[in-house]
Amino acid sequence: MTWNDFIQEFNDKFYNRMAMKAQQNEFNNIKQGTMSVTEAVRKFDQLARLCPHLVPTEDERVRRMLDMFRPEIAVVIDSGEKPPTTVAECVKRVLRAEYRLAQAKQERAKFFEEKKKEKSQSKQNQGNQLNNQGNRSNPIGNHFNQNHNKRKGNFNGNKNQKSHPQKKNIT
Question: At residue 41, does pLDDT exceed 90?
Fold first, then answer.
């Protein structure tokens, strides 16, 4: 009896078929999601040990592992000069890609935070300039502001009085 035969017989005798199906489904649908690469690889290894018939070769194991990772990481790995051929090489590349993507994300966040500060300071400076313009002594501007709401003409409430002076006839 081979080791694989023993494992198969042992599993048939001592493992619940429904639990094994659930583990197989979990393994077939495993995705990295919010897990780190290290956590995802650990989970993948656990499920691969429980379902060895799903990853009989190193190539199949690497293929399934690459399918598990988030698209932005898998793209970096797939776009290399040659795809990884071992699990160790795959994990090494994926860890490097995760690190570089995290660095790029931090740099972008820092860049946008600086832009946000610049925009905020620019708005604050514009507001200060507007306030300063209103407080400056500008004789023309102040004259306009002081007389802006005054009506022209002579209005003193007397209806009989004409607002325009009459011309006197000199004869």
Answer: yes
